[in-house]
Amino acid sequence: GFDSMEGDLRLENVSFRYPGKAEPILKNVSFHVSPGEKLAIMGATGSGKSTLLNLIPRIFEATEGKIYVSGVDVTEWSLKELRDTIGLVPQQSVLFTGSILENLAWGDAEAHVDELEEAAKKAQIHESIDLFPQKYDTRVGQQGVNLSGGQKQRLSIARALVRKPSLLILDDSTSALDVKTETALWDALEGEAATMLVVTQKIRTAQGAHTILLLDEGEVVGYGTHEEL
Ligand code: ATP
Asked: Exposure winner among 76, 111, 204, 227, fewest CB in 10 A?
């Protein structure tokens, strides 16, 4: 287990309204994820899942309420340190024109090739990369190889793992993966980040989490294990 508060995530009565909008998108959201746990967030399209995730690394600021990462109010973290401790994989993976290696390192000049490969292995993308004639030097993006949706998702996950986040947040990042690949991925991620937050539309993915949170129109309408819900 984890001895410290590292990766602990707590939301207390969080509400959020986009600037200039009258309607709140999130209303009084509270939950707690202990280090080492995996929470799945489910809910209809537009229920506020991505918005909720974006509040944690302060891409948007909560309008009301408190968010604590590793026991510290996110507004008291330096933005850089907060974002370094959180690995957020967005719904639409963003790859830039460059090599696979550059995309994995993402401007981290200190990243070692073997660390990048290690992350790629955990994210179940190493074998695909190895099949390209130029391997990790293969160019992606415009004028590069066309990666499948699932390959892009796995590359984005690998990139997040490189930074060894204490809180890994996946926004529907495994939607394009087949059952076998996804199972291998979850096995590899076991113990990788202290805490995992996973938005998913798939019941099977949610079943692998300790707890499931159901959002409906910005409100928590369910919270418990798969059996309880
Ligand atoms: P999906 O499953 O389709 O990704 P979601 O549950 O992640 O949906 P959000 O993307 O968080 O939902 O959107 C929640 C609501 O907030 C929607 O009504 C959406 O139109 C609105 N919204 C999202 N981004 C913005 C923005 N930048 N400005 C204003 N409204 C926004």
From this structure: 227
User: What angle in degrees, to the nearest 10, is found between the helix axes of 149-162 and 113-122?
Assistant: 130
What is the spatial distance between Cα 223 and Cα 229, in angstroms, rounded to a whole number? 7
Question: Could you report the predicted ipTM of this complex, rounded to two decimals?
Answer: 0.97
Q: What is the CATH number of the domain that holds 64?
A: 3.40.50.300
How far apart are the CA of 69 and the centre of ligand 1, in A? 23
pLDDT band at 55 (very low <50, low <70, confident <90, very high): very high
Q: How far is the CA of 111 from the centre of ligand 1 (A)?
A: 34
- Cβ neighbours of 56 (radius 10 Å): 22
pLDDT in tens, 17-54: 999 999 999 999 999 999 989 999 999 999 999 999 99
Per the domain annotation, does 229 fall within a domain?
no
Residue % of the chain over a pLDDT of 70: 97
Provide the domain count of the chain: 1
User: Atom of ligand 1 at shortest distance to CA of 47?
Assistant: 6
